[in-house]
Amino acid sequence: MRVWFLCKVKYAKENEQGLLKNVSEQYLVDAVSFTEAEARIYDMLGSVIRGDFQVTNISKSNIVDVFFFEDIDIWHKCKITYIVADADSGKEKKVTQFMLVTAHHVKEAYERIYESLNNMLVTFNVPEVVESPIVEVFPYEKDDDLNPPIPENLKPLNEVNPS
């Protein structure tokens, strides 16, 4: 299960008039710990933001899933509710979850979250969709540099003739 961390970053951003203005932006990072979230945000933004920037806050997010559509990068936070039966007591329980989806406007976000969740086995409702202040989402991506390919001039030990 993914753990999403909300990272707030403060830096000086150039506006349309060419003046520097201090801004604070929010980013969502998939990480296993606060330490990894901080390291990943510094790594991801270090090449994007010119000058110094500071991570002012990191907190665990209540986001459980993210749906990215490539045509737009405006994030909308959707509240999803559904009813499940407790296996032990047999009582019904209302479950609330929050998900992010990219869309041009709230109506499209509502339609896209229904499209993305159409394979759920339970009936769900979307009582709330709001535009999110999150600028960008950084999901975990497997790093291929962790296991680089073996160079051609090297052989496994079991293929080497002992002398």
What number is the mean pLDDT?
A: 89
Taking the sheet with the most strands, its summary is: 4 strands, mixed
Q: Roughly how many Å is the radius of gyration?
A: 22 Å
| Strand order in the sheet with the most strands | 3-1-2-8
Distance between the termini: 51 Å
Give the overall shape, derived from the CA principal axes: extended
- Tell me the fraction of residues in β-strands, as a range: 35-45%
Helix content: 10-25%
Tell me what you see in this structure.
The protein has 163 residues and is mainly beta. It is built from two helices and eight strands. Strands 3-1-2-8 form a four-stranded mixed beta sheet. A four-stranded mixed beta sheet has the order 4-6-5-7. A hairpin with a 6-residue loop joins β5 (75-85) and β6 (92-102). The longest helix is centred in the N-terminal third of the chain and has 13 residues, at 34-46.
Note the topology.
Blueprint: E1 4-14, E2 20-30, H1 34-46, E3 53-60, E4 63-67, E5 75-85, E6 92-102, H2 106-116, E7 124-131, E8 134-138
Parallel strand pairs: 2-8, 4-6
Antiparallel strand pairs: 1-2, 1-3, 5-6, 5-7
Short synopsis of the structure:
It is built from two helices and eight strands. The protein has 163 residues and is mainly β. The longest helix is centred in the N-terminal third of the chain and has 13 residues.
Descriptive keywords:
mainly beta; 163 residues; 15% helix; 43% strand; four-stranded mixed beta sheet; extended
